[in-house]
Amino acid sequence: MLAALEQELEIRKVEFNNQVVETIYFGGGTPSVLDTTEITALLKTVYINYKVAEKPEITLEANPDDLTSEKLQQLKASGINRLSIGVQSFFEEDLKLMNRAHSSTQAHQSIKEATALFDNISIDLIYGMPNMTKERWLQNIETALSFGVPHISSYALTVEPKTALANFIKKGKLKPLDEALAQEHFFILKERLEKEGFIGYEVSNFGKPNYFSKNNTAYWLGKKYIGIGPSAHSYNGKNRSWNIASNPKYIKLLEKGELAAEVEELSVLDRYNEYVMTGLRTIWGVSLNRIKSEFGEDYYKYIQKQSKKYIDEGLLIVKENVLVVTTKGNFLTDGIASDLFRIT
What we know:
The chain has 14 helices and 13 strands. Strands 1-2-3-4-5-7-6 form a 7-stranded mixed β-sheet, with helices on both faces. It has a 3-stranded antiparallel β-sheet with strand order 8-9-10, with no helix packed on it.
């Protein structure tokens, strides 16, 4: 697999000609299974084949149970300079409900040890759980803040089919998800983090100044990126591509020097809808000037017409000809964006 990843990196370097790599992200699956030597080898392949910024953000996703003292030392030595830790909750009952492998004790210990080695750390938290009171949710936030981490990503709980959580709800052991409760949790999160100097630069992402995730920001601002490995997605502004999901097939194709990706050419309509969706989720909003210049007068008039009711309701505002979601509209961003989409 590692040889195949290196081969794909080498083949695809032509896609990044004369461009600077600002962020490298080890995500998806369990990248923390890699040891120092393996991570270093992958990073070396990137540096050999691409022009890399002087101080790139190099992130690795990990779960608390992966982050032993020894593993953290290995990661530090490998060149990783940012950790994204999938805590989800500091309460044991929540972790069991979500079928997480780690315990509350491991969550505390991993962050405590990680902050001694890494300055740039993000914690993931889940809100909107059926049995989570507002008081307990606030306790989760306070615990996260107590470690002094500069970035928190937080998402509303979703129930996946055939999971323990779905089964509990089906059998009546748990209440169904309550959107009103999730909305209350979101506003508690936003208010508390902003008091601590965090900025909600994207609906689900809160960072202290100079600690916004460069990887996340690039995605939301529509920058070009290359995804390496099975199931990885890539985007170049006009096309979206995704690699084959099968590990064995991926490896076999790369052994023959062949790429294993499907490509979708994005129409003007696709690119408009995508820009609206990603732009509205951020503090940078949707530029009406860009809509007019890039997509034309027709799209410009359409978005003005569609957004009027949300402006009247105080869910959207226009600042310097940029459409931005208000605090009141934050939790409803995806629904608002879908109403601004065009079908034809």
